[in-house]
């Protein structure tokens, strides 16, 4: 290519880099703002988005998740956008390094999820089962989200119906939760039909396997964007030496 063509291509890549990272920066700012809003005034968030949002807030601390993701996107967007605009090799290298670290972390998580599925189940059991025993039937929001999950996924408990043995719900009502095929027989006779109910963890895993193509496509798309971002930042970094 002629010097003019090379310069034109460099300018095009630079503009695309700026616009792409500006979008990331604005998205990060939006998520960060929503996260702070949920943290400061969660009730108004619930009033706008309804009961399900209340249930989600009980299970996962959405505010911290949004704040962390928003902050990461802000940093990435700033480094990429400002680095390209100012043609700063330092900022471009920092952008490349941050995206590379995130890319490696995603691969590591994916590998661990595939290899240590049983470990994940053990950890979830240790964390979730006590909550089911103590809070199901007591905490309305938690009870609602588990009822919705068990009804939609056609499951009972995290591992199976025995997660509710010695629970507040069973001690109070003498039956398993309604989504577990309605009012099941007493504990002594639970084997008659309770054992036919699979746990939600196995069912969710089965859904993931069924939709593995979609999940894999989304993951591959995100990975491709990250690789493209790293390639573009490195191209700009190297071209600055030639300039």
What's the structural blueprint in terms of helices and strands?
Layout: H1 3-40, H2 42-49, H3 51-59, H4 62-86, H5 89-115, H6 117-135, H7 140-153, H8 168-173, H9 200-210, H10 212-242
Provide tags for this entry.
243 residues, 77% helix, single chain, mainly alpha, 2 domains
Note down, in words, how this protein is organized.
The protein has 243 residues and is mainly alpha-helical. It folds into two domains: 1-86; 101-242, no CATH class. Helix content is 77%, strand content 0%. It contains ten helices and no strands. Helix 1 packs antiparallel against helix 4 (62-86). The longest helix has 38 residues, at 3-40. The protein is elongated and about 80 Å long. The two termini are 15 Å apart. Residues 51-60 and 183-195 have low confidence and may be disordered.
Outline of this structure?
The chain has helices spanning 3-40, 42-49, 51-59, 62-86, 89-115, 117-135, 140-153, 168-173, 200-210, 212-242.
Q: Which class of secondary structure composition applies to the elements?
A: mainly alpha
Q: What count of structural domains?
A: 2
The outline comes out as: elongated
Order of helices and strands: HHHHHHHHHH
- Low-confidence stretches are 51-60, 183-195
> What's the alpha carbon Rg, rounded to whole Å?
24 Å
Roughly how many Å apart are the termini?
A: 15 Å
The quaternary organization reads as single chain
Average pLDDT rating: 77
Strand content: under 5%
What percent of residues adopt helix (DSSP H or I)? over 70%
Number of helices: 10
Number of strands: 0
> Major sheet, described briefly?
none
Subunit structure: Interacts with SLC19A2. Interacts with NTRK1/TRKA.
Transmembrane segments: 12-38, 58-79, 91-116, 214-238
Membrane topology: Multi-pass membrane protein
Family: Belongs to the tetraspanin (TM4SF) family.
């Amino acid at each position: 290519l002629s010097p003019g063509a090379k310069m034109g291509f460099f300018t095009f890549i630079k503009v695309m880099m700026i616009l792409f990272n500006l979008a990331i920066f604005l998205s990060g700012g939006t998520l960060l703002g929503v996260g702070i809003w949920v943290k400061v005034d969660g009730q108004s968030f619930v009033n706008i988005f309804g009961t399900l949002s209340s249930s989600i807030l009980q299970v996962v601390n959405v505010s911290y998740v949004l704040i962390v993701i928003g902050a990461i996107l802000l940093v990435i967007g700033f480094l990429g956008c400002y680095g390209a605009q100012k043609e700063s090799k330092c900022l471009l290298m920092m952008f490349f390094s941050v995206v590379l670290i995130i890319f490696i972390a995603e691969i590591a998580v994916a590998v661990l999820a595939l290899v240590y599925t049983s470990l994940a189940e053990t950890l979830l059991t240790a964390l979730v089962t006590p909550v089911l025993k103590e809070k199901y039937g007591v905490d309305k929001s938690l009870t609602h989200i588990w009822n919705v999950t068990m009804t939609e996924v056609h499951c009972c408990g995290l591992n199976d119906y025995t997660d509710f043995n010695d629970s507040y719900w069973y001690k109070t009502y003498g039956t398993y939760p309604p989504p577990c095929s309605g009012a099941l027989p007493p504990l002594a006779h639970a084997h008659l039909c309770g054992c036919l109910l699979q746990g939600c963890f196995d069912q969710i895993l089965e859904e993931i396997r069924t939709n593995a193509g979609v999940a894999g496509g989304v993951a591959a798309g995100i990975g491709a964007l990250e690789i493209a971002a790293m390639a573009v930042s490195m191209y700009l970094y190297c071209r600055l030496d030639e300039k």
